[in-house]
Amino acid sequence: MSFGLKKEKTPFLEYKKSCYRFYDARLRAIENIDEELNRFESQFSNKHNAVFWATDYNDVFESLKRLFKTEKTRSVRLPNINSSTIFRELGIKYFLSDQKIELRDDADMNFFAADMMFSDNGSLLLSNQTNNTFSKLSNKNTNVIFITIDRIICNSDMIEVYQQLMDYRNGGASQDMIVFKGSPNCSNYLFIIDNQRSNILAEKNIRKVLSCIECGRCNDVCPVYQSIGDEPYNNVFTGPISHITLPYLETFESYKHLVYACTLCGACEEVCPLELPIREMIVNVRQSFFSDEVLDKSDRRQLTIMRRFLSNRSKMNTIKLLRYKLLSMFISQDLKKSRRIQPLDQETFNKAFKKNNGNDK
Ligand code: SF4
Ligand code: SF4
């Protein structure tokens, strides 16, 4: 059975308090994830609903191939791919095209991306679908729903808070959401996917990053993200949180530079409704690079030179060309390919400060 959430919303009477309660519930689910996932599964599963556990892309694709065979699937209906990170993360369009599965609205099988699992009652929250596609959930259809292991919360009474926090992504407008527990008219297959999240869960001092709800507020204020944009990340995950997660979701070798592309200014934390300690986690990841010896000799040498250079005022006041050369040495080659290094000011900060100070007198 499923039901849509009312569009009219009660405004947050106690915004901060609601956010704290929400964060607390998310954190509890993340800290006890094995137990909460089992609790969810036992409540969701029945003769119409089945759960598939998948370690990575290959697991998902192998199970899907078997499912297509047993269900004799020729076509699939996909929701708007841009609003579903999980579909882009999996590269589902390429997989379906390889399997010669046609994409159409009146397909044999419907794909959905779920936002959240509620472990207290075994329901799913689905958003960003049109009314038309919601109706398919209860008709005589085969539905395949995808979600990653971290999208879990203990209390279903947090739905409204979640819904309102996510309105930011829609420019303040309410998103269409539905709570889904299955329907006797259709078969529902839920894929719960790890895809390297357990690497993050294994790191005690950063695992709270998984409670992020991807609302996008921090992306809009991060000076680094605003200056480099999506392209240098070369990933579906971009912005402040990806500086922490991508080395674990992908490889340390290809993403270690990201945690150093942060000035620790704290703008992201100021806007985060969950008050996630982003800077603390970034520093923790930096430290783990040193302790795990992920940094090679040349990285360490560059960081030592940079530290000496940046902490020495007379060196920072040195001539413009030398400063430019030194700084460009420390900017990742990947970033340099896609972005021009910003020109430095003609004057050093000291000179400009003295001049302005003199003018003020
Ligand atoms: S602390 Fe780092 S990630 Fe956060 S806004 Fe500042 S530069 Fe961006
Ligand atoms: S870190 Fe906070 S502000 Fe940024 S996307 Fe996650 S919940 Fe939103």
What does this molecule look like?
This protein has helices spanning 15-31, 33-44, 57-71, 85-90, 92-98, 131-136, 159-166, 197-201, 217-221, 223-228, 240-249, 252-255, 267-271, 278-291, 297-310, 313-316, 320-329, 333-338, 349-360; strands at residues 2-4, 49-54, 75-77, 102-103, 109-118, 123-127, 142-148, 152-153, 177-180, 187-193. The protein is of the alpha/beta class.
Features:
about 350 residues; Rossmann fold; 10-stranded mixed β-sheet; about 45% helix; binds iron/sulfur cluster
How much strand? 5-15%
Number of helices: 19
* Cα separation of the termini: 73 Å
The computed structural class is alpha/beta
Chemical compounds bound to the protein? iron/sulfur cluster
Q: What's the pLDDT, averaged over the residues?
A: 83
The CATH superfamily of the largest domain bears the name NagB/RpiA/CoA transferase-like
Strand and helix order:
EHHEHEHHEEEHEEHEEHHHHHHHHHHHH
Which CATH class of the largest domain?
Alpha Beta
Could you tell me the radius of gyration in angstroms? 24 Å
Count of folded domains: 2
Shape estimate: elongated
Question: Could you write a compact summary of the structure shown?
Answer:
The chain is α/β, with parallel strands linked by helices and 361 residues long. The protein has helices at 15-31, 33-44, 57-71, 85-90, 92-98, 131-136, 159-166, 197-201, 217-221, 223-228, 240-249, 252-255, 267-271, 278-291, 297-310, 313-316, 320-329, 333-338, 349-360, and strands spanning 2-4, 49-54, 75-77, 102-103, 109-118, 123-127, 142-148, 152-153, 177-180, 187-193. The chain is built from 19 helices and ten strands.
